[in-house]
Amino acid sequence: MNRNFSRLFTPLLGLALVIITCVGAWLGPVTVASAETYTIRMGSDSGNLAFEPATLTVKPGDIVQWQNNKLPPHNVIFDGSNVPADTIDLVGELSHSKLMVKPNETYELEITDALAPGEYAYFCAPHRGAGMVGKLIITG
C-alpha cells in the first residue's frame, strides 16, 4: 500500500508544481506591502530643539516611534487645527502629552486605517515656541 501511495503521490505533486508555476507566471510578480517602523528623534544630535526628521511620510500599518534624544523633556501633541477634518476627534488619542525625560524613552503610534490620508502637524509642548514642530504625511 505504501508503494502504491508513492506512485500516485509523486505525479500529483509534480502536476501541482506545474500548475503553481503557470499561475505564478500568469499573475506576474506579487509585491507584498510590508509595514515599516520609523524613528523620529526628539532633540537633534547637534543639540537643536527639533524633531528629526521634521517631516515623515507613512502608510497604514506603519509604526512611528518618537525617541527622546537630546534636551528633554519632550512630548508629542497633535495640533487639532492642522489635521484632516474627519480625524479631529482622534487628536487626543494620537498625542502623548506626558513629558518624557529619560534618555531613549519612546512613544509609539501605529498608523491605522482610521486615520485619513493627509498632513498631521504635531509639536513638543515645552519647546513649541523654539520651533520644535513636525509633520506626518499619511498616504492612502
Automatic annotation (TrEMBL):
<dbReference type="GO" id="GO:0005507">
    <property type="term" value="F:copper ion binding"/>
</dbReference>
<keyword id="KW-0479">Metal-binding</keyword>
<dbReference type="InterPro" id="IPR028871">
    <property type="entry name" value="BlueCu_1_BS"/>
</dbReference>
<dbReference type="InterPro" id="IPR001235">
    <property type="entry name" value="Copper_blue_Plastocyanin"/>
</dbReference>
<dbReference type="InterPro" id="IPR008972">
    <property type="entry name" value="Cupredoxin"/>
</dbReference>
<keyword id="KW-0472">Membrane</keyword>
<feature type="binding site">
    <location>
        <position position="74"/>
    </location>
    <ligand>
        <name>Cu cation</name>
    </ligand>
</feature>
<keyword id="KW-0793">Thylakoid</keyword>
<dbReference type="InterPro" id="IPR000923">
    <property type="entry name" value="BlueCu_1"/>
</dbReference>
<dbReference type="GO" id="GO:0009055">
    <property type="term" value="F:electron transfer activity"/>
</dbReference>
<feature type="binding site">
    <location>
        <position position="127"/>
    </location>
    <ligand>
        <name>Cu cation</name>
    </ligand>
</feature>
<protein>
    <submittedName>
        <fullName>Plastocyanin</fullName>
    </submittedName>
</protein>
<comment type="similarity">
    <text>Belongs to the plastocyanin family.</text>
</comment>
<keyword id="KW-0813">Transport</keyword>
<dbReference type="InterPro" id="IPR002387">
    <property type="entry name" value="Plastocyanin"/>
</dbReference>
<feature type="binding site">
    <location>
        <position position="132"/>
    </location>
    <ligand>
        <name>Cu cation</name>
    </ligand>
</feature>
<feature type="domain" description="Blue (type 1) copper">
    <location>
        <begin position="40"/>
        <end position="138"/>
    </location>
</feature>
<dbReference type="Pfam" id="PF00127">
    <property type="entry name" value="Copper-bind"/>
</dbReference>
<dbReference type="GO" id="GO:0016020">
    <property type="term" value="C:membrane"/>
</dbReference>
<feature type="binding site">
    <location>
        <position position="124"/>
    </location>
    <ligand>
        <name>Cu cation</name>
    </ligand>
</feature>
<keyword id="KW-0186">Copper</keyword>
<keyword id="KW-0249">Electron transport</keyword>
